[in-house]
UniProtKB/TrEMBL annotation:
InterPro entries on file: MoCF_Sase_C, MOSC_domain, Pyrv_Knase-like_insert_dom_sf
SUPFAM superfamilies: PK beta-barrel domain-like
Top-level lineage group: Bacteria
Organism whose genome encodes this protein: Streptomyces aureus
Domain MOSC: residue ranges: 22-173
PANTHER family: METAL-SULFUR CLUSTER BIOSYNTHESIS PROTEINS YUAD-RELATED, MOSC DOMAIN-CONTAINING PROTEIN
Annotated protein name in UniProt: MOSC domain-containing protein
Taxonomic classification: Bacteria, Bacillati, Actinomycetota, Actinomycetes, Kitasatosporales
């Protein structure tokens, strides 16, 4: 199991229009059952264009995208310059092994009462290579057994709304076992 204590929000980002990157903000407001206030991906049903095209009535399990800043250091070693918000995440974290969290984990973000429930892994798409050529293979790879490994952060839904700011502590509440590993959503 990964590290689940001592996490912190280092940046928050949102964008009201469809764009791969999201500008950093002083704060974001999470709205229960919807996502980030004013963000193009907020809503009860799917908002990602490819998913809307398939079935616009699907529930939105991708209301808030969280990414670990440790990934930025990893890809920097391979020549990629990536900063918070560049990969479209809403909340950039440090100190928590997001990818190892089980489905249903609750993340309490800061003192404002915001709580998100982890729904799954982000499934990185080709847009990442449009942002920086060759980056996709750095965030999606294969393990020694040939299984796909997705490193592009996690997705969540908002259970309790509240304001989230850089510097906010993150408290992790694991679900009652047995734990279910995250899959792409």
């Amino acid at each position: 199991m990964g590290r689940f204590d001592g996490g912190e929000v280092i940046a928050v980002s949102s964008n009201e229009t469809y764009s791969f990157t999201k500008p950093n903000r002083e704060s974001i407001t999470l709205l229960a059952g919807l996502g980030v206030e004013g963000d193009v991906h907020a809503g009860v049903t799917v908002k990602h264009r490819s998913r809307v095209a398939k079935d616009p009535t699907q529930p939105n399990l991708r209301q808030v995208h969280l990414m670990h800043d440790e990934l930025f250091a990893e890809v920097a070693e391979q020549g990629h310059d990536v900063a918070p918000g560049d990969l479209g995440e809403n909340v950039t974290t440090t100190g928590i092994d997001l990818l190892a969290l089980p489905a249903g984990t609750l993340l309490h973000l800061g003192e404002g009462g915001a709580v998100v429930e982890v729904t799954g892994l982000r499934n990185p798409c080709l847009q990442i290579d449009h942002f920086q050529d060759g980056l996709l293979k750095r965030v999606v790879g294969r393990d020694e057994n040939g299984a796909v490994v997705r490193k592009g952060g996690i997705m969540s839904v908002v259970r309790t709304g509240g304001v989230v700011r850089p510097g906010d502590a993150i408290r992790v509440v694991l679900p009652a076992g047995p734990h279910v590993a995250l899959e792409a959503v």
